[in-house]
Amino acid sequence: MALRPAAAGAGGGAGASRAAGESPEHDGLENVLEKKIFKENKESIEERKEQCASAFSIDSLMVEMPFVNIDIEDEFAIRSTSEVNIKKKRKRTTGRENEEDSERKKKKKKQSQPNYFISIPITNPEITSGVQAVQDTIIQKDHRLSKAMVHCGSLHVTLLVMHLSSKEEVSTAVGALSDSKDLVEDLLKGKTVDLSFQGIDHFKNEVGFVKLAESDHTAILMEIAETIKTIFQEKGILAGEDRAFKPHLTFMKLSKSPKLRKQVKKIDPSLYEKFKSHYFGDEILHRLDLCSMLKKKQPNGYYYCESSVILGEKHAAEPDDAELVSLSKRLVENAVLKAVQQYLEETQNKSKQTDGSPVKTEEAASGSKSENENDNSK
User: Would you place residue 339 in the very low, low, confident or very high pLDDT band (cuts 50, 70, 90)?
Assistant: First the structure.
């Protein structure tokens, strides 16, 4: 609103300047309104100046900041997304690492699992027939357990288990077994080790075995096992187990059949109750075998042997190598002599038939035979 111009003069001039029909009260009210409007306009102008000055000050400061041209919201949004992605990636990576660690552990465990062992074969028929009786009794009560039975030809006592991963290690193990022969015989001092088997026990109701009766011979067997273990370990072979050595004769185990494990979780001890104190017989320690757990077994059911050592004197029923060679030579010589003799006889008969008639030859032979008989009767 335009300001009203001031009056040209005072007194009588003021009356002349008023417009016709206007009163003095009206002029006073208009002046008050004009002042109020002027004051409001002035305050509004001052507020705008302050805002401009403040905005100028903030802008000036922002210009000096290093991130003046950066969109803060976008920057923080990107970082937030990046952090989430990093966390997800880290989680996925951690999962893969756990899987890889698990696979490595499984592979390492598989590589270190025993695949060879030192065996004392059970050769006493009394023991094998007794074990067969136990197995038959159990199968009659629960035919499913037939899959858990150990073949009687495979019966043995394990002295030491090991892992051999190459032909070179197998060769080293063969040498270690050969080296152990002298040390074991030093422990025996010419005596025999008589292993007596009596009673039945189990491992966690998953393995059934015939117990080895406690005796001085059992203590010697423990020493032999420890001696062989030391020799193999000195050769750099991973041999032995963490658990204590407990010699036994296994005749059944659920692990032989994975399908059976799903059906039968535990072996009921009542199945072999009447054999718990049964005496099975004695086995004299005379041979140690290095056997493979994985290679094809022999026709008699016994394990594949890489090498064997004979301890102490040989049994009378077992001919030594020299005797076997001599016997073979004699058999061959006898066969050759018999063949030569037969050939000569056939040749002579043919020559006689060529020189004279068969009849004359037979008559001559008959006459000669009669003369010989007459001579003998005298």
Answer: confident
pLDDT given at position 15: 45
| Predicted model pTM | 0.56
What's phi and psi for 310, nearest 5 deg? -100, 130
Q: How many CB atoms lie within 10 A of CB 245?
A: 14
pLDDT of 23-70, one tens digit each? Answer: 555 556 667 666 777 777 777 777 766 665 555 455 555 555 554 555
Residues 19/30, Cβ–Cβ less than 8 Å: no
Burial class for 238, CB neighbours closer than 10 Å (0-12, 13-18, 19+):
middle
Residues in the chain: 378
| DSSP reduced 3-state for 197 | strand
Percent of the chain with pLDDT over 70: 60
Q: What is the CA radius of gyration of the chain?
A: 56
Please say whether the beta carbons of 269 and 205 come within 8 A: yes
Q: Which residues contact 311 (CB under 8 A, 6 or more apart)?
A: 181, 184, 185, 188, 285, 286, 287, 288
Taken in order 314, 315, 316, 318, is the CA torsion positive or negative?
negative
Which of these, 144, 147, 176, 149, lies nearest to 160 by C-alpha position?
Answer: 176
Question: In this predicted structure, what is the pLDDT of residue 3?
Answer: 45
Digit-coded pLDDT (tens) for 189-227 = 888 999 999 999 999 999 999 999 988 899 999 999 999
pLDDT the model gives residue 294: 94
- First vs last Cα of the chain: how many Å apart? 189
Sign of CA dihedral 229, 235, 238, 242: positive
Longest dimension (CA), the chain: 216
Owner of token pair 């030192």: 118
Candidates 254, 22, 75; CA nearest to 150 is 254
- CA distance linking residue 274 with residue 280, whole number of Å: 13
Question: Which of 206-220, 271-285, 300-314 has the lowest average pLDDT?
Answer: 300-314
Strand partners, 283: 195
Alpha helices in the chain (DSSP H): 12-17, 24-64, 72-112, 125-141, 167-188, 216-234, 258-263, 321-355, 358-377
Q: Please state, in angstroms and rounded to a whole number, the distance separating the CA atoms of residues 253 and 238.
A: 25
Contacts (Cβ under 8 Å, ≥6 apart) of 27: 18
Q: Which among 188, 203, 179 has a CA at the least distance from the CA of 290?
A: 179
